[in-house]
Design brief:
elongated; mainly alpha; 53 residues
């Protein structure tokens, strides 16, 4: 697997992790951390964010 494909896979995995953290933060009523995680998710994988909105 090429380094570029590995980096792309890692980017998607990190975006999913941040999306889960945003959900946990939302349930805990932590608004600021929710926004930070949502912005990070959108920056890493915009397509995943569009499906969640």
């Amino acid at each position: 697997m090429s380094p570029l494909k590995k980096l792309n896979q890692l980017r998607k995995i990190v975006a999913i992790h941040f999306m889960r953290k945003a959900g946990e933060s939302w349930l805990n009523r932590e608004i600021l951390s929710t926004l930070v995680y949502r912005i990070a998710t959108a920056a890493l994988n915009p397509q995943a964010t569009v499906h969640k909105i």
